[in-house]
Amino acid sequence: MIKVREATLADVETIVELGKQLQQSSAYAAKSFSEAKANSVVAMMVDSESDNALVAEEDEQIIGFFLGGLTYEWFSDDLLGFDYSVYVVPEKRNGRAAIKLFKAFEAWAKAKGAVGMQAGITTNINIEGNRRFYHFLGYQDGGVLFEKRL
Hints:
Low-confidence stretches: none
CATH class: Alpha Beta
Helix content: 25-40%
Number of helices: 4
Radius of gyration: 15 Å
Largest sheet: 5 strands, mixed
CATH topology: Aminopeptidase
Strand order of the largest sheet: 1-2-3-4-5
CATH architecture: 3-Layer(aba) Sandwich
Order of helices and strands: EHHEEEHEH
Number of strands: 5
Strand content: 25-35%
Number of domains: 1
Shape: globular
CATH superfamily: Gcn5-related N-acetyltransferase (GNAT)
């Protein structure tokens, strides 16, 4: 059975290792990966009031994570939740881990006063499948992201 819980400092190393797997298997592979920075940022999220780190576990093994935060649009006082990164190990992607991670983060964000949620697909992994997943969760297409290496 998959359960989701807030991450602890003891989980940081595992989250960073999974994050490295995500980085190396995605559009982020061309970018550098700093374990020191990743460890520092995830640890900060664990103890933050405006960010949150969640993990999905099965048989006491971490199989995924959700790193997200809260922000305001530059033009509005409406608080929004957003994802920094979401990852589930490949062999567990057709299960309920991602759904449970999103639902737990949405509940946390709503409890903090968020009125909406934004999430994106920037990894270039299974874009159409991920779009269907987001639609299944009730998200609507909200734009397009462009990137340019300098």
